[in-house]
Amino acid sequence: MATPTTLPSTFTAGQVLTAAQMNNLRGAFRVLQVVSTAKTDTFSTTSTSFTDVTGLSVSITPSATSSKILVMGYVMTGISGDIGLNGRLMRDSTAIFIGDTASNRPRDTFYNAPTNLPTSGFGFSPVFLDSPNTTSATTYKFQISVVSGTGYINRTGNDRDFTNYDGRTASSITVMEISA
Q1: 36 vs 7: CA distance, rounded Å
Q2: Which residues lie below 8 Å from residue 47, measured CB to CB, with a gap of 6+?
Q3: pLDDT, tens digit (0-9, with 9 covering 90-100), for 44-72
Q4: Which domain holds residue 92?
Q5: Is 19 inside a domain boundary?
Q6: Does residue 142 fall inside a structural domain?
Q7: Alpha-carbon distance values, 3 to 17, 66, 99, 134, 144 (Å)
Q8: For residue 18, what are the contacts with CB-CB under 8 A and spacing of at least 6?
Q9: How much is the pTM?
Q10: Residue 25 within a domain
Q11: How far apart are CA 69 and CA 174, in angstroms?
């Protein structure tokens, strides 16, 4: 993979790049591959431990250890009862893009608070640039857990047929390999 090593560190007005510099620039900082999946069905859990959201994961094999992986997700959550739902982004079995440690608080990527109409749905759109430093197949996925009760993906806690407030939704995860 080409990198712009022959480019000047600064440019002046009217400066022209050489053919070699243009060729190096053409190969750098580009999207090498994109992998995406959409989850349109629902998922539920009563687990107080983080559990994988079935169908909301993608696998990508970076072409170089120097590549970055841009992770973009949209996760629609719902909860039933006066509970909270914790969510996190994972690279294989490692939680990434989570908050710092603070006492015994969960380290999350997103959190659906019960004070915000516990039976409503809330969407989260995490975006994170990861540096996996590998050329092995790598899986990115979302996990959720609940304090108590039931947590949902792509539906509200109420899930009623007679109202316009309890629609079904979709979630997705997209990863892009970015050359170094």
Answers
A1: 34
A2: 145, 146
A3: 999 999 999 999 999 999 999 999 999 99
A4: 30-178
A5: no
A6: yes
A7: 15, 11, 33, 18, 39
A8: 6
A9: 0.82
A10: no
A11: 10
